[in-house]
Each structure stands twice: as C-alpha cells, then as structure tokens.
Amino acid sequence: MSNIAFIGLGNMGTPMALNLIKAGRQLAVHDLLPANMDKLAAAGARAAATARDAVAGADIVITMLPASQHVEGLYLGGDLLAHIDPRALVIECSTIAPESARKVAAAAQARGISMLDAPVSGGTAGAAAGTLTFIVGGEDQALARARPVLEQMGKNIFHAGPAGAGQVAKICNNMLLGILMAGTAEALSLGVANGLDPKVLSDIIAKSSGRNWATELYNPWPGVMEHAPASKGYAGGFGSDLMLKDLGLAGEAAQATRASIPLGALARNLYALHGAAGHGKLDFSSILKLYQQD
C-alpha cells in the first residue's frame, strides 16, 4: 500500500484526506494550522511538523492549496521537490494558473519526478462524499498510477491533456459556475421582488430551460435547500474570495490568448464588489446579497 503525503487541509483537503484514510491508505499530513492536522491525526494519519517531514518516504504527494503563489512557494521557493523521492508521484489538486502548473511540472520533471495537475470540481459536499470530479493534466502513465488513489476521492476522472491542461479546463468550468451563480441569484431576487416564493420559483426553474447546478443542488436563497451553504449563513463551501481568484485566472488566460470573455469579466467584477462589501469569506452563493433589497 502506498504511503501518501497530503499537504493542505482546508475545507476541501480535509475531507479528501479523510476518504483516503477510510480507504485504508497510510497518510502523513501537514497544514499551517495545527488544528487542521488534529482531526486527521485522530482518524489515524501522522501529523507532520513540516512539509519536508510529510514527504519523507512518500510514494505519492498530494497538495491542495489556495492559490498559485502558495503552490510555487511550496515546491519551488521551499525547494520541496529536492526532498521528494524521484520515484514518487506528485498530484497537485489546487486550482492555479496554467502557467504556474507548467512551471512546477517542469521543475519536477527536471528532478525525474512525475507530476499531474488535477484540480477538482464538486465542492465540499463532493469532497466529503468522495464524488469529486478530477480534471487532470499530465502524462498518460502518471495518470494510470494516480487513478486508484483518485478513485478513492472522486467519481469522475477526466484527462484534459498535457501539463497545465487540467487547470485550463477547471478555469473554464469555474468561470461558467461564477456566471451561473450570479445569474441565478439575480433571477431569484427579481422574482422575490415581484412577490414570488423563492422555493416555488426555484422549483419552476429547475424543471424549465433555466435549470442549472445552482438551482438544483446549491441554491443561493436561504431556506430553499436545507444543506446548501445559503441555509447555514453561507458558512463553509467555496469562498467568494476563491471564486474571485478563479475568475481572475480566467481573465489572465483570456488576456494571454486574446480570447473574449465579456460575461466572465462581468462576473469577476460582481465578485470584486461583493468582496469589497466584506463578504469575501462567505460561500460564493452569497453573491445573492448584491441583489437583495433592504
């Protein structure tokens, strides 16, 4: 059985790591917050004081970090690659800039280490249920090695192409998600302002041509879906600041290729306004607050 190092135990990383432990994997875990490691240690993981300690003797290294600067800082600035066994496989699950993914993958390859960028879709609920979608960039052989581990955390695994391709596909997905959530919140707010019940309207949309993931599984209106972050004060889930980051990555990718993303740019500006109003730490479905009338 492979020894796995798991670095980054936030809202996504913790349930992913727990699913690996439940599947019988041996884990060494590391996070900047000791409290995050305590939960994994209680489940049977070894809490590592440093990232270098975590990767010692690891056959597989998995990282789930907030942004490009954290990934580059860990692997390049902290020279973690020098402490990873060249025979090990690195699976980088953060959502970062494609160019950052390619840079780190090239540095890993220079040391003889196979690396995949494998950002995920499915949110915290998917992470807890083990039903995530992995969107993978990298070589076929590396993906074949990673597949048994990914299948213990997710339900769908897609090979998008070479290094960085997983990040490109994830950015496209999250740009569309941001657009859909903002549009769903706008439509529900319009209906409620004109006297409709938000649950009734949501049910209508879910069975009509406006149906989308937000109306069916992640409704932004409080009380419509019991288990959605909106019904829990917008706590947990996928933070608005993280959505703003991903929409910014979409903008960077568009600028690099002269692609036109007018709706993506608009969604980015809406989330920037939302964050400036002090809501950046709330789940991204809290964009509804922009539309609600006092």
Automatic annotation (TrEMBL):
The active site is at 170. Its EC number is 1.1.1.31. This is 3-hydroxyisobutyrate dehydrogenase. GO terms for biological process: L-valine catabolic process. Residues 164-291 form the 3-hydroxyisobutyrate dehydrogenase-like NAD-binding domain. One of its GO terms (molecular function) is 3-hydroxyisobutyrate dehydrogenase activity. Keywords: Branched-chain amino acid catabolism, NAD, Oxidoreductase. Pathway: Amino-acid degradation; L-valine degradation. It comes from Bordetella bronchialis. It catalyses: 3-hydroxy-2-methylpropanoate + NAD(+) = 2-methyl-3-oxopropanoate + NADH + H(+). SUPFAM superfamilies: 6-phosphogluconate dehydrogenase C-terminal domain-like (SSF48179), NAD(P)-binding Rossmann-fold domains (SSF51735). Belongs to the HIBADH-related family.
